[in-house]
Design a protein that fits this description.
binds D-xylitol-5-phosphate; alpha/beta; TIM Barrel; binds zinc ion
């Protein structure tokens, strides 16, 4: 039970954002998962800096910011200023990945790399030692509420091996279609952090649902 839970605020009620942030503050969740979508890298637009700042104003736990945007390098400083504690960029949009990781760290944040379902974990081999987080996407990014892609469990196990071999401090996070059943399998495969959006916010009692994920 030492894994972390990062509820995705993408599925919260944006008309009651403070209420939902307080719910997470008072739950057994560990982080806030904050999804940023630009309508270019992914076919959806979520929200930007003003909303991150509003969440940060009330959050008592770290903001785990997942960028699904093209050209993330351009905005690293601004995400740090807005309150991101962990900043994750997608491998698929970073031609100078090593430089991007260094820039995230230089801005005072922890650095994460996300991999789409089709991206092989071997692409991390030469940067794994630099990373604080590896985010395995278990859906195609862009929307909450999609079904879990089973191949993610195999990828988690592969990243785990890579981390053990390299001595990297990176945690393994999984995002998309997480519920009690898929969450249990992910933890068995070696996941350290579970992101859950619709499973938490569409449940009758989100606080109890977070506790159930934490107790897996
Ligand atoms: C998907 C986002 C996820 C999303 C997960 O592109 O990155 O973080 O909020 O939602 P669920 O848990 O509903 O699949
Ligand atoms: Zn996400």
């Amino acid at each position: 039970m030492n894994h972390l839970i990062s509820p995705s605020v993408l599925s919260c009620d944006f008309a009651n954002i403070q209420r939902d942030v307080e719910m997470i503050n008072n739950s057994s969740a560990d982080w806030f998962h904050v999804d940023i979508m630009d309508g270019v890298f992914v076919p959806n637009i979520s929200f930007g800096f003003p909303v991150i700042k509003a969440i940060k104003k009330h959050a008592t736990k770290p903001l785990d910011v997942h960028l699904m945007i093209a050209n993330p390098d351009q905005y690293i400083e601004e995400f740090a200023k807005s309150g991101a504690d962990i900043l994750t960029v997608h491998f698929e949009v970073c031609p100078h990945l090593h430089r991007t990781i260094q820039a995230i760290k230089a801005a005072g944040m922890q650095a994460g790399i996300a991999l789409n379902p089709h991206t092989n974990v071997s692409v991390l081999e030469d940067v794994i030692e630099e990373l604080d987080l590896v985010l395995i996407m278990s859906v195609n990014p862009g929307f909450g509420g999609q079904s879990f892609i089973d191949n993610a469990c195999k990828k988690v196990a592969q990243v785990k091996l890579l981390i053990e071999k390299s001595g990297s401090p990176a945690k393994i996070e999984v995002d998309g279609g997480v519920n009690l059943e898929t969450g249990a399998r992910l933890i068995q495969s070696g996941a350290d952090v579970l992101v859950a959006g619709s499973f938490v916010f569409n449940s009758d009692n989100p606080t109890t649902t977070i506790a159930a994920l934490k107790a897996l």
